[in-house]
Amino acid sequence: MDGFLVCGVDEVGRGPWAGPVCAGAVVLDRSDLIDGLADSKTLTEKSRERLSSVIQTRARAWGLGWASAEEIDRLNIRKATHLAMRRAVSTLFRGFDMILVDGADVPDGLPGPGRAIIGGDGSVAEISAASILAKVARDHRMAELDRHYPGYGFASHKGYGTKRHREALDALGPCAEHRKSFKPVANRLETLTADAG
To answer: Which of 166, 132, 139 has the alpha carbon at shortest distance from 56?
Structure first.
């Protein structure tokens, strides 16, 4: 549909034990399509970085939204993810016709009609672009957190539950960026509390 503008939305960081969840929102220029867009998980880091720069230069509009580890613990990961998505879309102008969200459900409170598309990050260009922006931005944030909280390896595993992360959690205990509602972190806190008692 000529002139029909789609806002694609996707998130990164639902599964990690630490750090924020990040959502991207992108409106592409259908007359200036970007080659190489795909689900961010299928791309190399170098490709994601390159495409992120291209998207920011050539998209009609783009934005990011975040929900912190504290918000994830307070709201739960699903509600915090929807909050990040609403925040991402709210950064954009209101000139789009439809909001397409990767996944099984659409967040409440979006500024326009929305539709959920399972696997949308691999099939809808706008959602792919949002996925790439969110992934690159979150990876950069985790590298920053690695400098603030040395020893956990955030720059390498990005907060996901790797063997190295589990070992660091056991050795150091949780930091302020850990999601205390997530079972591995909660279990470690219980152990620390029991040891202190």
So the answer is: 132
